[in-house]
Amino acid sequence: MRISVINPNTTVSMTEQIAAAARSVAAPGTEIVGVTSSMGPASIESHYDEALSVPGVVEAIVRGERSDHPADAYVLACFGDPGLDAAREVASVPVVGIAEAAMHAASLLGRTFSVVTTLGRTIGRAEELAERYGLAGRCRGIHACEIPVLELETNPDTAGVLVDACRSAAEADGSDAIVLGCAGMADLAQVISAKIGVPVVDGVAAGTLLVQSLVTMGLRPRNTGELAPPIPKVYHGLLEPFGRGAIS
Amino acid sequence: MRISVINPNTTVSMTEQIAAAARSVAAPGTEIVGVTSSMGPASIESHYDEALSVPGVVEAIVRGERSDHPADAYVLACFGDPGLDAAREVASVPVVGIAEAAMHAASLLGRTFSVVTTLGRTIGRAEELAERYGLAGRCRGIHACEIPVLELETNPDTAGVLVDACRSAAEADGSDAIVLGCAGMADLAQVISAKIGVPVVDGVAAGTLLVQSLVTMGLRPRNTGELAPPIPKVYHGLLEPFGRGAIS
Amino acid sequence: MRISVINPNTTVSMTEQIAAAARSVAAPGTEIVGVTSSMGPASIESHYDEALSVPGVVEAIVRGERSDHPADAYVLACFGDPGLDAAREVASVPVVGIAEAAMHAASLLGRTFSVVTTLGRTIGRAEELAERYGLAGRCRGIHACEIPVLELETNPDTAGVLVDACRSAAEADGSDAIVLGCAGMADLAQVISAKIGVPVVDGVAAGTLLVQSLVTMGLRPRNTGELAPPIPKVYHGLLEPFGRGAIS
Amino acid sequence: MRISVINPNTTVSMTEQIAAAARSVAAPGTEIVGVTSSMGPASIESHYDEALSVPGVVEAIVRGERSDHPADAYVLACFGDPGLDAAREVASVPVVGIAEAAMHAASLLGRTFSVVTTLGRTIGRAEELAERYGLAGRCRGIHACEIPVLELETNPDTAGVLVDACRSAAEADGSDAIVLGCAGMADLAQVISAKIGVPVVDGVAAGTLLVQSLVTMGLRPRNTGELAPPIPKVYHGLLEPFGRGAIS
Amino acid sequence: MRISVINPNTTVSMTEQIAAAARSVAAPGTEIVGVTSSMGPASIESHYDEALSVPGVVEAIVRGERSDHPADAYVLACFGDPGLDAAREVASVPVVGIAEAAMHAASLLGRTFSVVTTLGRTIGRAEELAERYGLAGRCRGIHACEIPVLELETNPDTAGVLVDACRSAAEADGSDAIVLGCAGMADLAQVISAKIGVPVVDGVAAGTLLVQSLVTMGLRPRNTGELAPPIPKVYHGLLEPFGRGAIS
Amino acid sequence: MRISVINPNTTVSMTEQIAAAARSVAAPGTEIVGVTSSMGPASIESHYDEALSVPGVVEAIVRGERSDHPADAYVLACFGDPGLDAAREVASVPVVGIAEAAMHAASLLGRTFSVVTTLGRTIGRAEELAERYGLAGRCRGIHACEIPVLELETNPDTAGVLVDACRSAAEADGSDAIVLGCAGMADLAQVISAKIGVPVVDGVAAGTLLVQSLVTMGLRPRNTGELAPPIPKVYHGLLEPFGRGAIS
C-alpha cells in the first residue's frame, strides 16, 4: 500500500518531518510518500494562506492520479484540511485531512477533546471544521500557543510551550484528549502526552492510520453526485495539469 | 461610492451580465465596476472549480486594494461564495458573497426559502453555505435545473426551464421565497417572479444592495483576530501580487 | 419609494429620532415616514411591554395599507421586533424588524457579533431572536448597559456608557461587530464605532436600508400559507381597524 | 387549589368546553375557573389573531392577580401559547401554555410525537413552539385537518375528520403519540385515542395537570431577571388595568 | 391508581425515603408502591453503576407487569434514568424517569434551569440526558456538591452544602429554577427553595406527578415500532424473569 | 498487540464470525481474541436486549483487565454500542463500539452515509447513536432489511436482500457510503460493495482498525473525571467480578 502524504505548504523540511511522523505509525507494508506542494505559501496561518495553498494541493493529487504508480490514498497534512472537497472529486481513492482525522480519532477516546493550535487567528477555522465534521459539541476549547508554524521547528521553547498549553487546556476544559492543531507539531505528541498524562492526538499519525484503515477495508469513494470527477473545462492562467482535459 | 463586482470565473460575457444586474439596482451615486478573474475556470460547477477560482478572486481584491481608486466594497458574484474568508482578510472594506446575500435577503421575506441552482452536484455546497450562515433551518429545499452555468446564457430554454423549476420548488416546499443559485441567472429573477407570483431573489442584486447598505452605514470591517491582514510571507510559484510583501 | 418606519412605543420624540436615523441613510428618492404607535407602552423593556405594543404596531400597518398613499415597505423600529409575523400577514409589502436587520447586516461583516442592549432583562428576548433568525451561533454575547430606553436620550452619560459597554463587549467576545440593541441608540452608532474602532450596527439604519434593498429588487411577499392575510372575523373590544372586515 | 384556565379568544362557549375538559382531569380539591378573554379575536388562526389576543390574556392575569381570591396557577388554553412570557412576568404563580404542556407530556410517552392542528396556516407557529421548547427533534410531523377553530364544535364531521387525520399522522410519521393542536379539540382526545390505538394528548388536560403538579410541589416562579415584574409605566390608549401602576 | 416507584439501587432506606417523597405529593386516591431493585449497585454514581443497575430495573417492571395487581405507571427514581427505553418496551403503562420529569417540569417555570448533582463525575450523564430530552438549551449549568449518594442521608452537612450549592448555581447561571440531580435529595427540595427563594425541582415528586397526570388523562403507550414488546428469546445466565417467554 | 473483540450477545457462532472479520483486516502483528458474553440475550434487537447485554459486556472487560495478558484495546461488536461508557470507565485501554467506528469511518469517505440495519425497531437506537456521535447531519437515512440478527447467518436470502437494501438506500439517499448496522453482516461488506459500486462499511472491521490505530499511536484513555474507574462498592445479586473491590 502506498499513501501519499501531501504537505500543503511549500516548506520541504516540514514535509520531511511530516513523512517521518507518518512512517513512524504506518504498517510494515505501507509505503509513505511525502509530497511538497509545488506552489503556494511557505506556511498556512490564515484563510488567505489556505486559499492560495489549495491549487498546489489539488495539483499534487492530479499528478498523483496520473502517475504510473498512483497512491492508494492521500493525507492532507495541514490542520485546515485545505482543498479536501476538491481533492475528493479528483481522487479515485480515499483522501483524509488531518484535522478531520485527529478530531474523529480523539472522539473515540472519551466524550470531549480540546485543540491546541499555533496562532490565535486560526481558531476560527478550527471551530468551523469541528462544526462541519459534527464534532463541535465534543470540542470543549481551542487554544493557541502563539508560535508561528515555521518556528515550531526552530524555536527551542516549542516543546515546553506546548506542554504547558496542552496541560492548561486539559485542566481548563476537563477534556478527555488533546488534539494538536498543526502538522508541524507531529513529532511532539508522544512527548507531551507522557508529560501531562492525557492522550494527545497528532493529525498526521491519525490521518495516516485512518486512511490506511480505509484502504485495508477496501473502501474506495463512490465518486458520484457532488463528488463526481469535475467536468473538463478551460482553466485560464493555470498551467497543466489544470488545463482542459486534465480531469477525464 | 464604487462597488467592485468580481466574477470569480474567467468568462467575460458573464461579467458583463453580472455588472449589468448590479447596475440595475445600485443607487444613482454608486459606480459598479465589473472585474473578471484573471485566472481559473471558465465556470464554477464543482469544488475543484471553486478551489481553482479562489486565487483569482483574491488577486482581484489585492489588486483592487492597491489601486489608486480602491473600491468601497466588493461583491463575490458566484453562488459558492469562493474565497470569502480570504477576501475579508485582505480587504479593508466590506466583502459580501452572493449566496450569503441572497439567503439573508430571502430570510427577510418570510419564514422559509428554497434554492434553485444549476447542476445537482452543486447542491452540497449550497447546503453547506446555508448551514454556515445559520439559515439551513429556513432553507426548505435546494433544487437543480441541470443547465450548466455557461449554457444559461445560450440555451433558448433557460427561462422556461427556470420558471418551471422555481414554480415546482415553491409548490413542493411551500416556501416564502426562491433564491436563484447562480450569478448567471441574475437577469431572470424578475421575469420568473412575475410568472410564478413568488418573490425570487437574485444574489447579484442582493449582494450589491446589501454591500451598498453597509457602506452607506459607514461600516468597515474590524480586520483583527481571525480576519486580520495575512502575515507577509513567501508564496512559491505564484506571481505578484501574491509574493512576499503583497499584504502589508 | 416610501418607507414607513414604525415606532412601536408611544414616545413621539423617539419616533423623530428614529425617523432622522432612517433618513440619514435612505437613498435620495426614498421618503421616510415616521409613525408613532397610537397605543401601548411609552417604552418597551419587558415581554409585557412588548405584548401590549403589538396591537399598535399592527394597527399602524393596517391603517398604512388602507391609506391613499400606502408605503412600499415597513420597518419595525424596536429591537424586540414586536408583531413581526402579524405585520407580515397584513402587509402586502416587505416588513423588516430592526433586530432582524441588524443581526443579518452584522453577519456580513465577519464571523461573529455581540449585542449591547439597554436593560439586562431584555437579554432573553435578544437571545430568542438570534436563535429564531439562525444567527445565535454568530452572536458571541449580549450585554446590557442598564440605561432604560427613555433615559438614553436624556442621560448625559449615555454616550460614554455605551462606548465603554461596546468596547468591553468587543474585547471580551472578540467579535467582528457590535449590534446596538435599541432603536433609541440609533444616533450613536457612528460615534461609538469611531471611538472603539469596531463596526457598530444600528438596526434602524440597517432596517431602512435592507427593506429599501428589497423594494429596489422588486421583491414583494408571497402572502400565502402561514403568511396569508388573516381571515376576517370579529375582534371584541378592539376599535376599528381591527373589527370584522378589517382585513379583506 | 384554584386554577384559572384562560381562553385567549372571546368565544364563551369555547371557554365552557375548555373548563369542562380541565375539570374532568383536575384533582378533587382543585377548583377550575374558566376565564374568557375580554377583548380580541373570536378565534385564533393566524399571527394577527394571536397578536390581538395577547392583551386580553395579559389583562386576565393582571385582574386575577389583583383579585381577592387569586388563582394558584394559570393555564393559557390556546395552542399558540399567546402571551406566555408576558404572563410569566405578571403572574406570581405558575403559568403554562397548552402547546407547551401537550408537547412536554407527549415527550414522556416515547421518542416521538406528531401534531394534528386546525388550519394549515398555523403549522408554522406550532413548529416555532416545538423549536422553542426544545422538542422539535421529537416532533415528526404537524398536520392540518383544515377545520376552522369555531367549526370544530358545530361541524358534524369533526370527530370523523380528526380520527382520520390522527390515524394518518400516526401511520405516516410512526410517532409514539399524537398531540391535538387546538383547545377546541379537548373533548375528543379520548375518543380518538380509543379509535386509533395511539395515545392522544389534549393540551387543556395536560396544561391543567402539569400546572396542578407544579402547585402541588410548591413551585412558584422566581420572578427575577428576564421574568421580573414589568417596570410600571404609561400605557397609552389602553384602559386599566394596563395603566401606570398596574404592575407594582 | 397505583404508581410503582422503582429505586434502581439496592439501598432499602433510600427506597423508603423516595416512596415518602412520592407519597407526599401524590393525589389522595393514588397508591405509591416503593420497589427496591433486587440486584445491582448500592448507589449509582458512574456509567458502570448505571449499567449494572439496569437489569434490576427491568426485572422490577417485568415482575410488576406480571403481578396480580399491576401498577398503572412506573417512576424510575434515579437521576440517570437507567433503563428507561427498555422499561418502555416491557411496560404496557407509562414509565417516567426522574431526570426527564424534573427537567420537563423545570422548563415550565421559566426559560432556564440549572442542575445540582452529587459527584462531578455524573455531570456528563446529566448533560447527555438534557441533550436527549431536547432541554440542553435551557440547562445553563450542572454543578456538583461532591457528596456521594449514600452520604446524602447520613452527612449532617448535606442540607447546608446543598443550600449553598443551589444558591451559587442560581446566582452564577441566573437560572429560573434549580433541578436536584439525585433521588436522595428529594426531601430537601422545599427546604432549599425556602432558603434561596428559587424554585427547586425534585425529580421524584415531579416524576410521580407527571406520570400520575398521564394516567389521569388515560394515556397509555403505543408499544409499537421501536417500543414494541421485546421479541421472546433466550437470555443466558440470567434467571427468570428474563428467560424465554418472559415477554409475551 | 492484542485486541479483544467482544460479542455482546451469547451466540458463539456469531463470535467466531466476528473474530474472523476482525482478523481479516488486522495488521500482521495484531492478535484478535474473540470473546463471547457470558450472560444475556442470544441476539440484541431491542432496548431490552441491549440493557440485558450490558453486564456481560462489562464483565468481559473486567475479566480482561484482570487477566495475565490483558488486551491492548477492546471492540464492542454490536451496532448498539452497548455499555460503551461503562466499558470506558473500567478499561485502562481504548474501547471502541462498532456503530461509532463505522459511522466515523464512513464520514471520511464523503459528505453523507446511510445505514442498513436488521429490524426496523432498531432504527431509533441507530438514530440516537448518530446524534450522540455528532454524525446525525451526515446520516441521510436508516433502513431495515427486516432479517433478524440470528437469521443473517442461516437465511439463504441474506446476501440478496442486503444487496437490494443497500442499493436502494444508496439510490434513495444519494449517500456517499453505506454503513452496515449489525455485526452479523460483517462478512458481506465487500460482496455488497462490489455489487452496488458504493463503499460499504462494516463496523467490526472499522472498529478493529480504528482501535488498532489508537494503540499504534500510543493513545490510552485519560480515565479521569466522568470516565474515572468506578468507585468500589457493593453490587447486590451480582456474582464476581462485580462485587466490592472489583474495580480498584
From TrEMBL, chains A, B, C, D, E, F:
InterPro entries: Asp/Glu/hydantoin_racemase, Hydantoin_racemase-like, Iso_Racemase_Enz_sf. Pfam families: Asp_Glu_race. It comes from the Bacteria. Belongs to the HyuE racemase family. This is Aspartate/glutamate racemase family protein.
